[in-house]
Structures are given as C-alpha cells and as structure tokens.
Amino acid sequence: MNGPSRRRTGAAALATATLIGLAACSPPAKTSGGSGGSGGTADKAATATSATEAGGMDALVAAAKKEGTLNVIALPPDWANYGEIIKAFEAKYGVKVASAQPDASSADEITAAKNLQGQSKAPDVFDLSAAVAAVNTSLFAPYKVATFAEVPDKLKDPNGTWVNDYGGFMSIGYDGKLPTVTTVSDLLKPQFKGKVALNGDPTKAGAGFSGVVMAAIAQGGSPDDISKGVDFFSQLKAAGNFLPVDPTPATIESGQTPVVIDWDYLNVAQGAKLKGKVDWKTVVPPNAAVGGYYVQAINKDAPHPAAARLWQEFLYSDQGQNLWLKGGARPVREEAMVKAGTIDKAAHGALPKTEGTPVLLTTAQSDKAAEYLKANWAKAVG
Amino acid sequence: MAELTAPGTTVAPGRPTSRRPTGALLGVLPFFGYTAIFLLTPTLVVVIGAFLGDGNRPSLGNVTALTQPQVVSAFVNSVVLSAVTAVLGAVFGALLSYAVATGRPGGTLRRVMTALCGVLAQFGGVTLAFAFVATVGMQGFVTIWLQKIGVDLAGSTWLFEPTRGLVLVYTYFQIPLMLIVFLPAVEGLRPQWREAAETLGGSTWDYWRHVAGPILAPSFIGALLLLFTNAFSAYATAAALVSQGSPIIPLQIGGALSSEVLLGQENVGKAMALGMVVIVAVVMTLYAVLERRTTRWLGR
After folding, report:
1. Both A371 and A255 in a single domain?
2. A260 and A305, same domain (yes or no)
3. Domain limits at A268?
4. Does A238 touch chain B (CB under 8 A)?
5. Which of B73, B139, B242 shows the shortest C-beta gap to A244?
6. CB B255 to CB A129 under 8 A?
7. Could you give the CA distance from residue A264 to residue A138 in angstroms, rounded to a whole number?
8. Nearest CA in chain A to B139
9. What ipTM was assigned to the predicted interfaces of this complex?
10. DSSP letters of A236-261?
11. Are A5 and A269 in contact (CB under 8 A)?
C-alpha cells in the first residue's frame, strides 16, 4: 500500500470482468501466417500478432535491438517488482527501457498514447487497470505471446488484444496481536470493535468494491447477488466493528487500522515493510477468493513495435512471471507454472493460501453489483 | 458602527450616503473579471452539465437522479449538519463575542481572542481532521490518556460519524468564525444606550429585548447564514474523516466525479451541485426577507 499501489488499486476487480464482454468487439486477429515475405523485420513486427509472424524469436530480438529502446509508462519500480523486471529485460536483450511518469495512473497512460501519437516518445506498451483498458481496446495491437495458451481463457482476449498480466485476491490483513482471523465472520467478534477498515468506499474504489464481493461470497452470496456482502458490513457497523477510515501505510503502522480488507499483494507488501514493527498477517478467506487482475497491451502506434512485442514475450516468460511473483503479485500463468514446476517455489509459498475456486465477476455481474452498492451502501454503513 | 462587516451585516438602515466617485466602475472591473472566471463560469458549467445526458444531449436524467434515496438522505444530512453547527456556532460565538467585547478595549484578552479566532476560523480541512484524529481519535492522546485513568473508549468510532464527529469538528471552526464576523456588531453597542435604558427605569431584560437585541438581530442572522453556507460547502474536513458511505452531499459529489466503480456519473454530480446552489439560494432569500422585515421594524 505504498503511494503508487494505492493509486492503482482501483478497479482491478473489474479487470477480467469488464473485459470478457469486450472480446467480441476486438479487432480480428492477423491471419497472414508464415515467416517469409519481403520487407524489413521492423515492418513485420509492427503488425505481427506473434513472434512467428515477426520472423521467429531471434528475428524479433534482433529487430528490438535495432530499435534500441522500449518506452514504458506508469511502472513504479516498487510496484509488482517492476524495478527488477526492467533491469532484467535490459540486461537480457540489450534494449534500453525508457520509463516515463512511473507514478502516472492508468488513464494517464492512455492520454499519453493519444497526445504523443506518432512521436518517438509515445508509450510502446500499457499496464492498465481493467476499467480503463475496457474502454480503450481500439488503441491496442493484438499479439499472442509464445505462452499465450497457458493463460487461462477467462484472463485474456482470444485474439490477444489484451491479456491479464498479474493480480491477486481480496484478503484480510491484520495485526498479529489480535485473535487469529480465518473467515470473514470472525470479524464480527467483539475483539474487533472499531478495528475493521475497508480500502476505499466500494461505490468509488475498486479495492473496496471487491472487498464487499468477497464478504458476499464468504457469507453465502454469489457474484450475481452481493446483497449478503452489504448485509455483512451493515452487521459489522451495528456491532461497532466497522471503521470508516481509509487505511494507509501510516494508519496501519500507527495501529489506527488494525484490520484492513484489501488486495493480498498490498497486504503482503505491507507486512514485509512493517517487519519488526507490526506482525502484519494476511489471509484470503476460504472459499471466497475474489480475484482481480491488471491488463497488459501493446500500443498499436508503438514507436518501437518489435521491442514492445519482445517486452510482452519477456513478461509472459517464466522469468518475467517469477519476477512479478517475487513482488507479491500473482502472475497470470501461475497455474501452468505450478504444474510444470517452473514457478519460484519460495516466492509462491510466501503468498497467502487460497481455498476454493477463484471468483471473477463478469461485466454484467459487476455492473449489477455496482448499481446495488450505489443504492444500498450508504444506508448500510451510514 | 461596524468596521468589519460580514455579508449583509448592515446594522442600522440609515440613509444610504450615495456617492459615486469617478473611476469607481473602473476600480471594480478586476472584481467583475474575477467573479466571471471563478464564479460565473463554474456555475454555468454546473447548470448546463446538470441537464446534459449521454452524448451531451439535453436530459432531465441527472436531476431526477437526485431523488435516489441515498442522494436525498445526503442532502438532508448536509442541511441538518450545517444548520446545527451554524446555530451552535452562532450562539456560542455570540456569547463569546459579548464576553470579549465587555473586556477592556485593547486589553490582552481581546487581542488574544481575536488573533486566536482569526487563526482558528481558517483552521479547516485535512489539518483540522488530523488534529482531531490525533487528539480524540482511536490512537489519540486524549483517548489513550483516558484509557490510563480507566475510561475505555477504545474501538469507539464516534469521531467518524456525521451526527457526532462532524458536528463537533465543524463547530470547532464555526465558533471562531462567528466571533470574527459578530464582534464588530457587539462592539458597536454603546454603553450609553444601556445607561439610558436604565435611567428610564428599564431592566436588563428590557435593554436586551428593546435595544441591543433588535440592533444585533440583522448581524446575527447574517452571520448565521454565513456559518450555514460555510458548513454546507465544507468538503475536505469531512472527506478526511469519513471515508465510507458519503453521508453528506459534498462527499456524494466527490464520489460522482471520481468513482472508478460507477462510471459516467459526472453530470449527476453537477446536478447535485445545482441542488446545493438552489438550497443556498433559498436560504439567502429567507435571509433577505427576514432582514427587510427587521429593518422595517427597526425603522419604526
């Protein structure tokens, strides 16, 4: 929950959700196959929808090297381990990464792409929150990385216009001095009086929204009916346990918000940061794993099309995925990598355990949930 | 009578000393320019936006959205909160003003009080919220000190509730503001008037009922209105304290403009702002009517 992370927590829950519905609207995949053909590799790269189309991985690397630079935007070095990822990419391929406005928001990324269109400084790739990605798919170039098949179907556009990259689950972070929390209902106990905070108003912030969905699922609700989640917070409020304070690293460290409902990667990062000061524990409630993912996409007017594609190949390679994992985020190929045994076991073991099928809301479900919250949230906690 | 007057604190009707120096109009030009840019334009943006629907077509959808129960209750909360804190601030502020005014003119008490209130009246927003959190919040030093002497307030979230927390915090800047705008009027009360009243056999009650009260009434009501609008439009203090449920209308507007969950609510936010403008307009009209009545009555 450092600066950048709070900024970007938003709407991740809606990520997959909102995008699933968009699959139909995305531009058709490039079908021209093969590696032959005339023209430079760079030209090929600009329209290539896979490494094969760009003339194979070696040709893609060569083309990217020739371009020399990759423009990235809004990637804070301490967010999901991007600092190390950028360094590893530069070292591996000898392509310089120009990182612009690391603290910018997802919306800023799109603005930059539009304003700098046709210029050499325009961003080549995006890392977006789902809500922003959903309305801007016309700016993306479809591309399928070599490991595309290993990305779960729900977490990608079938043509590769956008692909989820990393994400996490809703979790409960709490001070180890408090009684152990295992389920959402535990928070109703009297020991948690005035202690439970939710990261943001769910009618405004994505993290808060997913927190209510998590409570709903845990209390026997479903993605189609989150009323049980709102009821839960209403009970929490009636019990005097709900704390209407926005949690920040400062409120956690000072003990003002001893229980925080937020993304697991943020709670875990918080725990790492407070090591020695506060014994900050993170738990994903059993059978209520509500997921949210960020979105990776290539700018269709990328000034460095080959480097942009190579960056994607790198991010979705075992190495790239494990680097995200090291930063506490769950890489999208997690499942396949666990099966293949290629996952960084230490980092993976450090993640909070999840139980049951992960829940991801569809567009229709999240729209419905948002409308329900709009009408009922203020009443529940007012 | 009053060197420093709040909006509409004309104390006595008097005959307007109508002088129009040459160049006066030129002098107010910057003011008009300023109001045009910072008051008129935003108001127009709000009014027009409130009636625009999807694709910038004229629509009443945003205005009808104001009837949603959570918006109505936010309006009610805002009006009640502003009215309660305005009355509390006005009553305590007026008593304080009287206490200060009866002190030695130019004395330490008066100088300290006016200076202090000048600072405190402007002490709002996040800093004020933080001050309260640090004092009486969950880990506030008063809370912890009370805990040590056996009064356990731990886990009490009263400070973050609009009915209790916000009333207290708002009153904290309302009282000093009242002192600043009302003190000049109280200072205008001449001791001779009281002496005259007493010489004619009037009691203290008679003096307040027939002399001081009527003279102070317009200023008092004007200051009350100022306090009401001051609380009605306050955003940052509430935003820093209450982060769930948007119980008052400025927070609802903030949510409509910045939500990443409910998209496309910007113009509903503008409709809510228009609602606020209407409420303030109604209050101002009431004030104008009241003032006219008082003046007429005073003039008799």
Report:
1. yes
2. no
3. 170-290+356-381
4. no
5. B242
6. no
7. 31
8. A256
9. 0.76
10. HHHTT-B------HHHHHHTS-SEEE
11. yes
